[in-house]
Each structure stands twice: as C-alpha cells, then as structure tokens.
Amino acid sequence: MNTTEQQFLKELDDKLWKAADKLRANLDAANYKHIVLGLIFLKYVSDAFEERQQQLLELFQQEDDDNLYYLPREDYDSDAEYQEALREELEQQDYYAEANIFWVPKHARWITLKEKAILPVGSVLWKDEAGNEVKLRSVSWLIDNALEEIEKSNAKLKGILNRISQYQLDNDKLIGLINSFSDTSFSNPVFKGEALNLHSKDILGHVYEYFLGQFALAEGKQGGQYYTPKSIVTLIVEMLEPYSGRVYDPAMGSGGFFVSSDKFIEEHAAEQHYDPAEQRKHISVYGQESNPTTWKLAAMNMAIRGIDFNFGKKNADSFLDDQHPDLRADFVMANPPFNIKDWWSESLADDVRWKYGTPPKGNANFGWIQHMLHHLAPTGSMALLLANGSMSSNTNNEGEIRKRLIEEDLVECMVALPGQLFTNTQIPACIWFLTKDKSGKVGKKHDRRDDILFIDARNLGYMKDRVLRDFTTDDIRKVADTFHAWQQGEGYEDVPGFCASVDFQEVAKHDFVLTPGRYVGAPDQEDDGEPFADKMARLTEQLKAQFDESDRLEAAIKCNLGGLGYEC
User: Fold this and answer.
1) Cβ distance 475 to 459 under 8 Å?
2) Same domain, yes or no, for 284 and 368?
3) C-alpha 506, offset from chain centre
4) Which of 103, 130, 135, 552 is deepest in the core (most CB within 10 A)?
5) Burial class (CB in 10 A: 0-12, 13-18, 19+), 301
6) Are residue 303 and residue 197 in the same domain, yes or no?
7) pLDDT digits (tens, 9 = 90+) for 411-469
8) How far is CA 508 from CA 312, 399, 443, 450, 463, in A?
C-alpha cells in the first residue's frame, strides 16, 4: 500500500474503533466483539453485493456481440418495462454465485438496515410471503433477521453468523454503530481528494483483522484464545512460503494463518510472476477449532476475504474429534495453547498419532507436535509456537519424544522469540519448524539431512507500548532470509549470537536440548583498540572512584539524618 492508503486505513480504524468502543460501558469485550464483527460482516456482504449489482447493470446495457448479459432495449415496449426487466434480472441469484459473491436478500441489505433501524418500534417494515405485516421489534432483532436471511440463502454460511439479540443492547447504541459504518464508502473510496485502489474486501478485511487485535488486547488473557500477534503469524508464513497446496491449522483461532497465507500470495505475486487470483485456486484451507464462537469468527474472517475453506462440520477438539482424519497437508501452521494440562482422555492411549512416544497426560505440547506431523504430507513443512520448556524438558517422556524427533531428522529449525510478544501470556515462546524431507529433492533446497538451524531472535523487535513487543518488517525479513539462505545452501553463514547450523552429533552432546542459545554462542564484541591490560587497569580505577563516591554520599545522608540519632 502507498502512504495515502495506509493513512486512510489508520484513520478509518481509529474512527470505527472509537464508535465501537462506546459499547464498553455496557458490555465486556468478549461480548461486544460479536455485535461489532457481525455488523462489519453485514456491511461487507452488502457492499460486495451492491458492487456486483453495479457491474451487472452496466453489462445488461452494454451492446456487444460477445456480451452474453446484454438486454436489448428494443425488446421492450417502454422505458418503464425495460427498467423493470433490469430490476428483475438484477435479482437473479446465479449472477452472484458465478462471481463468488454472497446472495443478500432485500431485507438483509445494508440500506434496509439503515432505513428501517430509525423507525419507531412497532412500525410495519414489509409483508412476508403469506402477506402478513412484519413489524419492527427492536434494532437487534432487525440485525438478527438480516443475519438469518443471509444464512438461509448461502449454504457456506450456515451456522456461522452469531446472533446479537442475546446481548440486549439498546436501540440507540446500535443505530449509532450502523451510522458509523454507513458513513464510510467501502467501495471506490476517496481520501483527501484522491481515489484509492482499494476494494471493499481489502478495506473490510483489514478492519476485521484490526478489530480482532483490539478485542484481544481488551480481553487480555482470554483474547489470546483466538488471536496470534500479526507479526508472529507473518514471520511463520514468510519462512514457510505457502504458494500452493493444502494449508492446515488444527488450533486455528480466528484464522490468522490463513489470512496471512492469502496476503503472502498477494504480496509476492510480482516477484514470482503469477496472477494472485489464479494462484489462490491452488491453495486449499483446512482448519479446526474447539471454541464455538471462535470457530464462527474464523469462518466469517474467511468469508469476508473470499477465501474458500473447510473447517469441518462443527467446532471440535482436534485430539478427540479430528475433523480432517485423512488430511495430509503441504503446510501445517499453528499457535496451540501453551502447556495445556487437562487435554488427555483414555481413548487417546494407543492413538496412531503417537508415533514418536505417548505425550504426558499433564501437558499437550508434544501431543500437538505429533498431531501436526500425523497430518503432514511426506514432503510437507510445518511450524508451531510452543512454550520454551518444550525445547529442554525431560519430564514425563518429553525428553524421549524430542530425542526421537531429532533422531528421525524431523527438526529443521528452532527460533527463540523475545518476551512480551503475546497479549495473553508472558511465558517465553519459541517456534518449531519440522519437515519429513530434508533431502533437497523438492523445491530449491539443498540436502540438509542431519543438520538443524538455530536462530536466536530474542534481541529483535521493539516495544510498541509499555507491555507489548513487536517485530519490524526488517526483523521478519532478517529471520526469514537467514532460514531460506540455509535451506538453499546459498549465502548462509553462522552469525555468533544470532544463528548457527549444527549437526546431529553436536545436538546429541547437549542431551538433545534444542534451545538456540546453547548453539549460537555470544555475539562478537567490537574491538575498541584498547589493550586488555590497560582497559582492566582503567576500569579498576573507575570502580574504586565509584566506591569512594558511594562512601561519601552515605556519610552525607547519615549527617542529614542527625535528628534520628546519626552523627556527622
């Protein structure tokens, strides 16, 4: 994006969040996010529908031998008859399905919401199919009715749109939100007199993602259940490079990895010489999530961005009710909850997924690793975030499982992350990168068998506020470029304190501990030209002077406290 587009989105974010945050006094973030995100979704599907309507209207009237949509004016006796024919044609659902646009019934369109929401309760809205009058009960009912009609008309959305009447928000606040969203043009936007090259999908997708992050911050620990910081997701996607194939996330939250994969395709289109729309056809998205409301958030997130998805028939536990039992994915990415204690069931005792050892009943970390490996294709690659303890723990069979993973040459790269990256936990984290094929026979990679790359990224990033750290674009590029150079065998070299390529024997000497700090060493110290003996003498004298000053200050303080029994 150019600077103007970025500025437009920032001002839009601030404006819409300010409007949404007025609900904070009435509801907590865990609840009002469903109201706000539901309205964002309604705005998106309605805008996309109207955009398609405008395209169709132009096609219907465009005389061209190759235009199959053309409706000749001369076929109708009057302008009124012709206009009526155009209106009827615009209401044909097939025209929208062929463009992958959700069908929005008349009573669910944004313009209907805006016009009807301000009417007095009890006003007649329309007549139903039986000819009965439908009256306004409340604004939340009007919104729920729109969501229900959209679900009925689009099989892909069945069961994923959250109703809002349960939150009992008063009409005025909902009307205020509707007006705030209405007050912005999401189609063909103009900012400071300049037309922007942003489509409604781009804008609303951005807004949806921004709001997810804001709600995660507002919810604190609970928000981390559905939101992984954007920079970490981007780092993993940039390292794995999912251009095509099946992408799977067994703990998908709100679907951040899928969104970043889609953005990756878009952003790297030019350098890879492909059409992003065509390339998206070569990506299949599979996910699973146990929390029912988060499962719906993810489905809405995909729908807003036009990403086709398979999230199983329902929300379900990935260990106990695998929704994709036969899937073998080319890319597996996940940020599962750290150190889950209450995950075990006796039905898992002899599970086929525990190929490298049965995980401990009191910690799911190595359950997640093996679940993901089970679903990984023979030439696939995977990455998952785990607590740092997974790299060194030897309790309850964890050390033996880690040893097996290393001996089977499945571990490709370990990345140690800085602290304070997550909204919901201060537990230090790392990223495991694993693959079943390090031979270099696939893609532009060289033979990496028996080698592991260690990257210590703990000193990267910046404090974006008092409590949260974030990565810059350069930080992400530094780590990803190092990984790719090592994979390809071109331009890689060890950097003390940052990265090291280590063979199996060296890792075995360290009892199969995978903590990068053990292998990358300390960064080289810059030579200041001062001989060591001279520097030591100077620093010793400086330390003595500081001790003397400390003694002087202590005596002065005691003297000033003479009234309390101290003597000068």
Assistant:
1) no
2) yes
3) 36
4) 103
5) buried
6) no
7) 999 999 998 887 666 778 999 999 999 998 877 789 999 999 999 999 999 998 887 88
8) 41, 12, 29, 11, 36
